[in-house]
Amino acid sequence: MNLLTLTIILPLLGVLGLVAVPKENTKAIKLLALASSVVTLISSLLMLTKYKFGVQGFQLVSSHSWFKVFNINYAVGIDGLALVLILLTTVLVPIVVVGGWNEAENGRWSVKTFYMLILILETFMVGVFAATDVFLFYVIFEAMLVPVYFLIGGYGRGERAAAALKFLLYSLFGGLLMLAAVIGLFVISIKQGHGTFDVTALSHLKISHNTQDWLFLGFFIAFAIKAPLFPFHTWLPGAAKSATPGTSILVLGVLDKVGTYGMIRFCIALFPEATKTFAPYIIVLSLISIIYGAFLAIGQKDLNSLIAFTSISHFGFIVLGIFAMTSQGLTGATLYMVNHGFSTAALFLVGGWMIERRKSTQVEDFGGLQRITPVMAWSFFIAGMSALALPGLSSFVSEFLVLVGTFTRYPLAAVIGTTGIVLAALYILLLVQRTLHGPLQAGNEDTPDLNWREKFALAPVIVALVLLGFYPKPAIHVINPATSQIMAAAQVTDPTPLAGK
Amino acid sequence: MLTTPSLDYNLLAPILIVLGGALLGVFVEGFVGRAYRARIQIIIALLTTATAFCWVISIHNLISQSAAVDSVSIDGGGLFMQGAILAMAFVALLFFTQNDHFAPQASALPGSQEEAAAVLAGVQMTEIYPLVLFAISGMLLFPVAHDLITLFVALEVLSIPLYIITGLARRRRLLSQEAALKYFLLGAYSSAFFLFGGALVYGFSGSLSLATIRTAAAAPGANHIFLLLGIVLMSVGLLFKVGAVPFHSWTPDVYQGAPTAVTGFMAACTKVAAFGAMFRIFIVAFAAVQNDWRPVFVAISIVTMAGGAIAAISQRDVKRTLAYSSITHAGFLLAGVIALSQAGLTAMMFYLVAYGFATIGAFGIVTLVRDSTGEVNDLNRWAGLAKKSPGVATAFALFLLSFGGIPLTSGFIAKFSIFTAAYATGNIAIVVVGVLSSAIALFFYLRVVLIMFFKEPTDDTVTVAVPSFLVTTGITICFIITLVLGVYPNLLFNLASTMTTLVP
User: Is the pTM of this model over 0.80?
Assistant: First the structure.
């Protein structure tokens, strides 16, 4: 069997295994879930051995007819863009399982259901990046919302049911707009001779300017809700506030990347003309996201919503890099997706442990943790530094690439975006100061430091942050062929560098 | 010299078998003792529908225009509808077996002593089975009828038994009788409209046969005024049957008042019959003047989709919610009629089956959720249902997700294919309004899911009756079909796309 397909279905096999385990045996359930996510990780790493680096186009492709009348196929394949995001997914899921070892205990349903949902979600997450058939992509794009809905609503805290519903309704609304656009694309492909959903074939269609604009908007709004981009972001803070840390990591770290991934894979590649029309407006929206997300993050009192708003700011950077339409911008944005996945994972993991120990989500309840829990405090500090893109940590590389890429085409936007970095320093350093330093807050005296399980979960994330910070070349090497192919498909070239005057 | 009309019994057999079963049921009512009646009637009804279904399969690739002297046309499209009606009716009948749904004695005044006496005596209303079989026979005839008189007869044969069984709910008798009366009066008006429209079309073309009407309509230079008037009036009758806005006002009341098992049957099977007939009439007889009626239908489709979805938001009663949802679905199905293409017909067929089984299953589950006084339809009291009976709640959630068109359920494929057909024929407005109404509709489907799964059970939360073997089978069939058609639609879609022939 194709290695990619194997990676997609391995978590599902884990789900089947979980069905057989009795509900009460939570330890076996967790171990089995961990095992199947690790096996999936190994399988995805094996793909690296089959993958030809520096080559354009989809690899490890496989296609089977699924729904014949409409020429819909189960068609999967990966290029550099998909590969890095799949690896991000398969790395994060075991970390989520280990890091949130006990987070399913107080849920509405059993621990077993929790891990079944997580593994189903993993299959969908890998599948959505691997799909090269637009219909298959759409199906997974929508279907993956259902497990997340139950993960937030069933295992979260506070207003979890309302948050879950809001998340689902927002996403489904966007998805339905996209459905109309998908149908439109298909009908156009029929009229031009051969009805297909194959993304490569669709990119060769000749679509009139006006139609492109509408179809582009159908896709873009769906992705902007997912990403989330201002003004479609309002579902995110509620979801992040209510979800368990593990769910938040998967939602912000991976799920939301489907939005930005879709912008590159579908919006730009399929509708290059419309992209050029809308790019300036989208850049304005992304700048608003950067600044607005950062300001709201500064004002947050709840630790989880604070992290959520920093993500809105970071997604602003990613979208900025994408629609700057330069090769540095695109590569930077793709790398940013990976780095943001790791840095958010670190923040939510450590933040989640802090909340678990203090039984409070309010920033003001923490303070002076540096003295009593040095390891946890340092971990949180590093996670925070990566969020503010400190040089030496991975986010710096991607943020720098995005800003340089933007500057060559939209200098003013790059300048405004740079203020986002300053604001990032503000919200992170304020957070670090309030939680880790200062006098010890009452109630924190007996906080235990990280145990071996938590260190074990966090270590790979920190390693990734540092490694990709000092030596991002392999990742860029994987991403570059994909982005240059998309640039070529969209028929854009990098602007000539501005000569110093 | 009078020649006897020649009838092709092989092709008419499905209709005749069901009619025969119904008559047999009437005899059973008359001659069999009360103790055995219920059981025998169930067996007759199930056997009849199953036999007729098998017969439809055996003749599924035959085509004939003269099965009954030009007034019935047997073809792929018609046979598919017949098969769908029979399959759904079979499953719906499984839910009729819970005898405590029906009034013991329909003629007794609600709350009267006679009624109490009938309840005490354990009287069961077994006439319901022959009545349903009569309705089914009308439904089988409706989509294959090829002239105006046969259409009208089929319409009445399918409607009148439905009026009666609507009034037979055991509990909340007044509501049920009110529903029956409303349904009857409005139904009678709409039939009259249909008949009057037919008369005008006859006046225009000089013929009752759809084929001749087609030729007359296509003739150059004809004065179309009576034809168009006739189309308008006939459309009123048909749109009433499918519950399209603005002819929908009976739907919530009737769905709520009728015994729940009947509601499921009615919602699924009547729609198949009515849409089957509608498609045939419009593509065979009225296609030549489509530029005149199509814009009106586009408008009706749009207001039906949007109206049903918006009205459903504020509902608190699960049966009324499902009723408004069925109105929305009628709007989507109309998009298939408007497409007036093979793709549209295929999509509509698939949609009808997907929607029908999900509807029957959903209403089947409604029959199970009860308290001491009977079924509980108040949604707020469904809170926390998932905790008490996760299986039932999961099945209901799946049906709702299918109504909402979430991928990997049959409803998604149905919606996708019907929108594609509409888009391909240039009705982009329908697609846009369609996706927007889907989004609105999702709100109330998901609210029900939320109530079942995420609300804490309260003290007066309902219990789920232990379903009998037949009821469990029914729900399981609906569940599997909804899931399988969502994951592997080829099974039905390939069949549907080969059965789109409609004889002119």
Answer: yes
For residue A153, the chain B residue with the least C-alpha distance is B454
**More confident position, B163 or B461:** B163
Angle at B437 between CA B433 and CA B442, to 5 degrees: 150
Q: Distance between CA atoms of B30 and B289, rounded to whole angstroms?
A: 51
Averaged pLDDT score across all residues of chain B? 89
If DSSP codes are grouped into helix, strand and coil, which group holds residue A302?
Answer: strand
Residue of chain B whose alpha carbon sits nearest to that of A141 = B407
Condensed to tens digits (0 to 9), the pLDDT of residues B258-283 reads 999 999 999 999 999 999 999 999 98
User: In chain A, which residues touch B (CB < 8 A)?
Assistant: 66-70, 108, 138-140, 142-143, 146, 150, 153-154, 160-161, 164-165, 168-169, 172-173, 176-177, 179-180, 183-184, 186-187, 190
Does B408 lie at the interface with A, CB-CB under 8 angstroms? Answer: yes
Q: Which of A71-80, A264-273, B349-358 reaches the highest mean pLDDT?
A: B349-358
Instruction: Specify the pLDDT at position A501.
Output: 46
* Whether A157 contacts A253, CB under 8 Å: no
Q: What angle do CA A117, A122, A126 make, to 5 degrees?
A: 155
The residue type of A358 is R
Q: Is A133 helix (H, G, I), strand (E, B) or coil?
A: strand
> B346 touching A, CB under 8 A?
yes
Distance from CA of A192 to the nearest CA of B (A): 12
**B423 → closest Cβ in A138, A164, A184:** A184
The residue type at B15? I
What is the number of other CB atoms lying within 10 angstroms of the CB of residue A437?
Answer: 14
Q: For residues A451 and B300, which has the higher predicted lDDT (pLDDT)?
A: B300
Structure tokens at B70: 């030009």
How far is residue A242's CA from residue A239's CA, in Å, rounded to a whole number?
A: 5
pLDDT in tens, A145-182: 989 988 888 888 878 888 888 888 888 888 999 999 99
Interface check for B442 against chain A (CB to CB < 8 A): the answer is yes
Cβ atoms A149, A168 nearer than 8 A: yes
Domain-by-domain residue ranges, chain B?
9-498
Write the pLDDT tens digit of every residue in B475-487.
999 999 999 999 9
A483-501: average pLDDT = 75
Q: Which of A135, A139, A183 to mutate to test the interface with B (most CBs of B within 10 A)?
A: A183
